[in-house]
Amino acid sequence: MPPPPRNPDHRSPKRPRFPLSPPVPEEEEEEEDDEFSDVSANDVEDRSDESADDEEDDVEVVAVVTVAEAQSRGYLGSSSSIPSSPVYKHCPVCRMPIGDIRCRAMEMVIESSAVPCRYAMYGCKETTLYGDQAHEKVCLYTRCQCPVTNCNYAGGYKEVEAHARLLHSWDVEDLTPFVFNTPQIFSINLARTSRAVFQEEKEGDMIVVQTFKRTNAGLCVTVNHIAPLSLGLPNLSCSIAKLNSFTTLRLGVMVKRIQNVREQEEPSEDFLFIPDYMLIDNHLKMQICVGSEFKYVHI
């Protein structure tokens, strides 16, 4: 005969595989939790301080290492000088994004770093502190542009003089020869151009006489010398005059040195003002005499 079915209510309880630990009072559990939380909080603070110190050390090391590379790229110092390309918005060493947060360590490194002049490739041997542009403004090797209309040649001022003598001297309308301390009469066709360019026959100095029509009335005339602002070059002065049949309007002025001719606003100083009644037609007849230093300032 088969055994009778067992009643599920009379099953024997299963024995645990491992002995149960005795119950711990609630007060002791809270004390242990507090001790553990205090220890873990202190450990986290210590680790965060150590990591912050390590990050500062890493920043200083990276700042020193990457100065030369960043200078070669041309954007060392601030994020405003970084190109718009996404590639240049990241550090070349750690690839982290570059933002607007100032780095004092990097600024100190930059201020004490010496860089060559931007015209070093043209022969300048000077070195300056990063961000100091005082030398570049008066550098002898600065680039000058040919003042002849529609000519885009640029180079050193002596190179520009040689270029003008070689390519523009055949056309008197573009380039007129002159001699120092010798008065010379010339005319400007205002319907064709707003300037007259002269070149000294022996020295090669280039002088530009430029006209500006005023918004209300009259005409302004300036005289400039294509040359760098270097202190080693001699200063020039000139006498510029507007000639009419029975009237002469004359001005003695120092010749300002410029590196390129601009066609923007009218001048605010050192110009000859010609009123409308002396402007008969578009042909402006004038006389110029250029000399050294202050010879023609008080004429």
TrEMBL record:
Residues 25-37, 46-59 have a biased composition (Acidic residues). One of its GO terms (molecular function) is zinc ion binding. GO terms for biological process: protein ubiquitination. The keyword Zinc-finger applies. It comes from the Eukaryota. Residues 112-169 form the SIAH-type domain. InterPro entries: SINL_plant, Znf_RING/FYVE/PHD, Znf_SIAH. Residues 1-59 are annotated as: Disordered. E3 ubiquitin-protein ligase that mediates ubiquitination and subsequent proteasomal degradation of target proteins. E3 ubiquitin ligases accept ubiquitin from an E2 ubiquitin-conjugating enzyme in the form of a thioester and then directly transfers the ubiquitin to targeted substrates. It probably triggers the ubiquitin-mediated degradation of different substrates. PANTHER family: E3 UBIQUITIN-PROTEIN LIGASE SINA-LIKE 4, RING-TYPE E3 UBIQUITIN TRANSFERASE. This is SIAH2 protein. The gene is SIAH2.
